[in-house]
Amino acid sequence: MHCRDKNGNCAIRNKIYEKFLRDFFPIPIPISIDTNKHKKTSKSNPVASKTEEKPTVFICYSRKDEKWKDKLLPHLNVLAYQEICIPWHDKDISPGKEWVEEIRKNIDRAKAAVFLVTANSLSSYFILHDEITELLGKKDKERCF
Q: Which ranges in the chain belong to alpha helices (H)?
């Protein structure tokens, strides 16, 4: 996925990630980054302080499949550490916030989405009738994803 040089810099070395980045994000891909300057600000969102600056990748999944979402996050965090995008999922909702409103706000902000397709997600009324409907409407309207 990545490697470090003698200065501790990190670079993407995976062609699949590189293609994903070039296809979805119209920004230059950094050749390397200084990993010493990046501090993890939360368990699920390593660059949470820069959420407004970078494109958001919305993760749609059933809470019953949280273990699969947790297996996906390290792969998306490679992009977050490169400061290319911010993965977002419902665990990033602050306590006291209206969760439906926060989900809709982040769907509106998203430039890409990952839908974890499982029996649990396909049988969730909220996912199928709210999240997927909004994501597909956004795709048609803005021609993103």
A: 15-24, 66-81, 99-109, 119-122, 125-126, 132-142
Put the strands of the sheet holding 9-12 in their side by side order: 2-4, 9-12, 33-34
| Amino acid letter for position 22 | R
How do strand 9-12 and strand 56-60 relate by DSSP bridges? unpaired
pTM of the model: 0.61
Give residue-wise pLDDT tens across range 54-67. 888 999 999 999 99
Q: How many alpha carbons fall within 13 Å on the CB side of residue 77?
A: 19
Tell the CATH topology of 43-142: Rossmann fold (3.40.50)
CA distances from 15 to 19, 21, 25, 35 (A): 6, 10, 15, 20
